[in-house]
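From the shared-data thread, chain only:
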Amino acid sequence: MDKKRIVVALGRNAFGETFPEQQANVKKAAKAIADLVEAKYQIVITHSNGPQVGMIQTAMTEFARLEPEDRTVAPMSVCGAMSEGYIGYDLQNAIREELLNRGIYKTVSTIITQVRVDPFDIAFSEPSKIIGRYMTKEEAEAEEEKGNYVTKTEDGYRRIVAAPKPQDIVEIDSIRLLLDAGQVVIAAGGGGIPVLPQNEELKGASAVIEKDLTSGLMAEMLNADMLMILTSVENVSINYGTPDEKPLEHITVADAKKYIAEGQFGENSMLPKMEAAVSFLEKGIGRTAVITSIDSALAGFQGKTGTIIE
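Structure, as tokens:
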């Protein structure tokens, strides 16, 4: 590998809540990516798909409800694929435009990515990810009759799905080939489409995958030099929300594992980011993981800010 590789994971703050917000916000992400391209790295981009996949699932459910005789509800795997496609479309066009404005001629490609999960993962019996529209009690009961899980919230009922751990990335060879060809690659959006092998078929699972964990796995499989996770804050903190809150700057893997064991990080926020970083670093030598905000991406890459784990 002649050039160094970096996997960049974009958090949900890179896109916003609506279509117009997303189109505006991806321009900020594009500038961050272009800075890294100018630093002569091979770039793979992963990204969140929340709340986009939820909006798609809600729309497809409503579509089926309006014409129940002719429509079936789109499975989660299809909704995930849709979100990968349209977020990738906005991202690749914004990155292409930013690169051309800097005089850089480089192809940007999106790969609809499937990620193998374990059918025996305990997550399938303990679903935790809320998704989709609010439902009445009667609608929630109907969902449960179909075998789906629901949970009660302050504003009604919502569906919850499993979040199994990623085991393998089906399209990893295609991603590697495009990188070797000098392209910027967008892959495994939303953590990828969770699939279960059944003989020759890859069957979509009713689940979502934590995109940070897939990002870490991809960085491992590509033997990347850096995993950069861009989120809404400049640094990871311990004792978060207390008078003793302390931002983390340069830490070791041993430090990170200690803080994880202490329960310092939220299960649905910083914990998967730290777990992904630790797993990536433990499986190779000379690697770096950086967690910082999208506005500080270049400074984080240069080691000037962010939480840097080595």
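The CA atoms of residues 196 and 203 lie 5 Å apart.
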